[in-house]
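ESCALATION

Customer reports they have been waiting on this structure for their group meeting. Please prioritize. Original submission:
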Amino acid sequence: MQSWGRHLSNVEEFPAVARRLTEFEALVAAAPTALEAIPGAVYICDKDGSLIRYNSEAATLWGRTPNLGGERERFCGSHRLFLVDGTPLPHEDCPMANAIRSGVATRNAEVVMERPDGSRLTALVNIRALTDHSGNIQGAINCFQDVSAHKAMEEEVLRKGRDLEDFFENGAVGLHIVSSEGIILRANRAELELLGYAPEEYVGRHIAEFHADAPVIGEILHKLASGERLDRCHARLRAKDGSIKHVLVTSNSRFDDGKFMNTRCFTIDVTHLHEAEQARNNSG
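Update from on-call: job pushed to the front of the queue and completed.
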C-alpha cells in the first residue's frame, strides 16, 4: 500500500502537458520587440477591435504613436482613413473591423491613411483574423506597407496613356495602324472623316482595298516591311462616296526582336492642292 502511494505521489508530481497557444496568444505573449523583427508595418487588434500591439514601422507610417494604456483605440492607429477615390472610411468600417467581425481576410487591398499633419499615403494592407483552436475569432493582424510611390508611377503611366490615346484619336491629321499582313488595326477620327467610313467599314480590312493604285500601295507595304521610312509619299485613296482623295503618307514600321509587327501611318489630305494645281495647268 505504501508502495502504491509512492507511485501515485510521483504521478501527481509530473508536470501538466502545456496547452498549445493560439496564434493570437503567442503574439500577445511574445516580447514587445518581437513585432520589430517583421520587415514592414504590423499591428494587432483583439476581438473587440482594440489596438493592443504595433511596431515602430506602423507608428512611422501612421505619423503618430497610439496609446495602448487606458482607453484603447480601435481597428487602426491612423489618424483618418479614406478609400482610394477619396471617400472617407470610418475606422469601424475598415478592413480590420470586417476581419474581426466576420473573419473575412483582406489581400492586397489599398486604403489611404492620413496623418495628423494632413499628409496622406496609400497603403497596401493584408489582414487575417486570428482564431482559437475551435475557430473562434480572438483578434486580427494587419501587415501593411506604403505604396504611394508605386501609385504615383502608376497614375503617371495612366496619364501618359490617356494623353497618347487622346493624341491618336483626336489628332488633326489622319492616323492609322496597319499590321504586318496589311490589315488596318486602328484608325483615328480624322482618318475616318477624311474617307467617310464608319470604324467597322474601315478597321479590320486590308489597306489595299482603299488605295486607287495597286502598284503604289504594293511598293509602300514592301518598303515598310523592309524597315524603310516613308516621308510624304503621294497616294490616292478611295472615299466611301466614290471620290478619290490625294494624300501624302508618312509612315514607319515597328519591329520587335527583329520581327516586323506593324506600321504607323499619318495621312495628310492634299486633294485641294492637287485640284488647284490641275486647274492652273489646264488654264495655261
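Sent to customer with the following note: The chain has two domains: 18-151, 170-283.
Escalation resolved.
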